[in-house]
UniProtKB/TrEMBL annotation:
Domain DUF676: residue ranges: 46-177
Keywords from the named record: Repeat
Protein's UniProt name: NACHT domain-containing protein
Homology family: Belongs to the putative lipase ROG1 family.
Organism: Cephalotrichum gorgonifer
Region (Disordered): 1-29
Domain of life from the UniProt record: Eukaryota
Amino acid sequence: MSFSWAGGRRPLSSENPSRQADEPGQYGLFTISEPHDVDGSADLDVVAIHGLNGHFQRTWTDPATDFNWLRGALPTAIPGARVLSFSYNSILQFSKSTSNLNVFADQLLESLLVERHPPASRDRPLVFICHSLGGLVFKQALLRAYERERYRPIATRTVGVLFFGTPHRGSQFASVATVLGSIIKAVSLGANTNTQLSKDLEPDSRVLEQVSDGFVDKAKNLRIFTYYETQKLSFLKSLVVDQQSARLGLAGELAVPIDGDHRSICRYPDAADKRLKIVLGHILELREASTTISQPVRSARAAPEMNPIEEMDFLRSLNTSNPELHKARNPAPVEGTCAWILQHPTYRTWYTSEISSLLWLSADPGCGKSVLASFLVDHFASMPGEERPRVCYFFFKSDHLEQRDGIHALQAVLHQLLQQRPGIVALASSHLGKAGPKSTAALWNTFAHCAELPDGGEGGAISARDTICVLDGLDECEQDTKQALTFLLSKYYSENRPRASPGPRLKLLATSRPDIPFKLAFDNRKRDSKPGGAGNRVPASMIRLRGEDEIDAISNDISMVIRSDIFGLECQDFPPDILSAIEIQLVAKADRTFLWVTLVLRLLKERVEEGASRRDIDEILQSRDIDFVYAGLLRTRLKNPRVRRLLGMILATPRPMTVEELSVALAVRNPAGKLSGSKDFNDVEYDVVFPHENHLKGLCGHFIRIIRGKVYLVHETAREFLLRIKEAPADGAPDTERIFRLSGCRRELVETCLTYLHCLASGAPTARTLPFLHFAAKEWPPIYNDLTGREKNSPKRFTGLCHPSHPGFSTWMPLALHNIKQTGLSGDDLQYHCLCMLGLILPDSRDIGRRIQQEAQSATQLGPMSSNPGAMGNHYFPVELDSHGAVRLDFKAVGWRARLQGSQVAAPAAVTIRGFAAATVRTASLTEGSDDEDDKGYILL
């Protein structure tokens, strides 16, 4: 069989597999099979990408039978598919290449562009098949395709991907970098290596983090099939990529275990292999899905058409949050737990109902509602093809501005639905109408309408694939949108009744605490249990499952969690008899509260690591008060000001801060009393502690959780605890004020941001202090605006930063105001404009400026005609900067030296430029002919 390579020469013969590929002509895109249908025209391009030390043919070939399924089975199963295989220098041993992931991604994109150059080929849907690290190459290529207009058609026509053993993230046992390190060790013998590729895959490489973070957003438009290994390689002690590492955890992903090790999961002895039939069935699903792209369903033919760019823009307007990351905040359930709900009669009634219906799962705080909701999302997403519903979800959390917003939630679930039904994007846009993606009612109505639209099948067939929407933690939604969303859900499901013809149903699962508003809205049992004949009974459209009543099921799950964690303590050589007694006491005291058990176990682990007596352990087990457990987790930590500052930042931040952001923020010294703050970024860097994560965990222990590089409190009740605890009384003295006041935490965080931004006067951030720049620039104005009255920081701390003459203005202001442009405004007017845009003053509130100016004149006893030019309102004066970044008047530029000869400017005083640039004037002796530095007046903005 002959092969073609896009842009290169023919490959070496595949009959010589031992020969190492290290010549440019052996790399590129090879055609494995042309279409086998009647007219020979392709309606789908399938592209295979091998992994580390792989080969474009051998990776997919069974070594015993020499059967390559890309050539021997795929074309027969999908006659209209053209099968391609990408070859790149992933060889570590014996290779002189310095190529990296970016190079491989660009090679793949350019080769695809050449291969798909004919007009008939450009719109052909694309499906990718990736083994191991070939998945990283694909993910990087997709990111670059979205970034560059040249490759954009490749990105928009990619409909799905099959990942075989690709490490997307770490597991509970290893980070993703550690997994990749294991792969490298498995294939590298330590000879000459592709050094650049090795560096890209090193544990401390930022490349992996950037690829993973960027792909999650772009993957929302794809259908993803993930296959993970179940057997170990003979020479390794563990799986190369376990299930947790192989799964992305996205709504549209289907994860399937494949019998085989890391190599054999993509190699099959013949076309009859049952594993291969599953894989081919999934590729066929992608082909069928590709035929509906940008095509309205039969019931929506009247919907206006949208071109791909318009569709992308509309989807982007809905893509305002990261539900996958929100879901990942919940710990993974211990194996065997949560399964009880699948057989629960109430759940079964809801799941099998013939109408769209709502299931409200209520339970008290700490009973595992979020873990159970996460389990159900994974369960629905992993169901077999024909049974699998479309799954949409959102996890509310009150400690995150984005995660507590009901509008963000509805945008997220609508976006997830349209990812799985790309053919109705235009219809959804039309239905949303002028209300746009900011209206709670319009978003819900559009989501419900699209969920119940029938699918248009081939030959006029209509399929009824249900949509299941999971909304976890409704009680943590902010008040306004919570009320609106609760009303919309109650109204929709109370009016929903059986229809004459079957069609897709919208099943919604909501979890919350058993609060009264939800009882009034969702508890439909009385309305659906009126007396009457069984034949006339109307199915309940709103059903309640009281988690607080499921004593046996929850107690059994808690026992499994305790047993799992106790096993971990056994590995630390703690006496088994004591551990057995601990297990018995924990089960007895748990009282159906996962949170208490989880926190106590963490506290026990911490004490055991330090060394603990039976008395120490009994003290921990004696308390049933969750606040006591929290106090135990913090123990003496709150005596450390750094701990209190860290927890205050977590309480005050409008969004979760990253490990790097918090580490730099902690290194910023705020001015306090006579103590000066950080002067420059070298000063800040000097106080940054490494390793970041170790330092943060060392400060707060198990009171915080670090998930995908972001820092959270261990639970919502921990936030409530911090905001109500008081200092312990000393010597009989009464309790002092709360340790944490939210307003004080916010003020402190604003001060930290401002101190950091003032360092810009002395130069750009260093590489190790740069991670905090975006947060410091963008987040402090809304935090400041949430403060009231005397709680606010002094305007003197930020007015100068907003003046274009400040050295850091051009660095931080574009981050805070994305739409700021060069204007013809004077410096003072631009300063005023920025203050208004940031919400720091009200537009047209010139009286504020006049009041500040009057205060300045009163303080200096200088009138408008004073020789102090800074006191003259509505006059402009040339300014320049000194070596400290201070803005000062340049008297030389206006020739005032002669007029002001012999004048002595009064003692340091507050003055203003146009009323907004609070300043201090240095005493200046203005003498004719003097060139000294003291010949100039300073205005410190």
